[in-house]
Amino acid sequence: MSVISSTHRNGVDTETMFATLDLIKDQPELARFQFRATNRWIGGAHNRSTIKGFYAAGGEDTSRGEAWELDAGEPAILLGTDTGPNPAEYLLHALAACLTTSIVYVAAARKVELTSVESTLTGDMDVRGALGVDEEPRNGFERITVSFRVTGNAPAEKLREVVERARQRSAVYDMVTNGVPVAVEVATA
Question: Is residue 4 predicted with pLDDT exceeding 50?
Answer without folding.
Answer: no
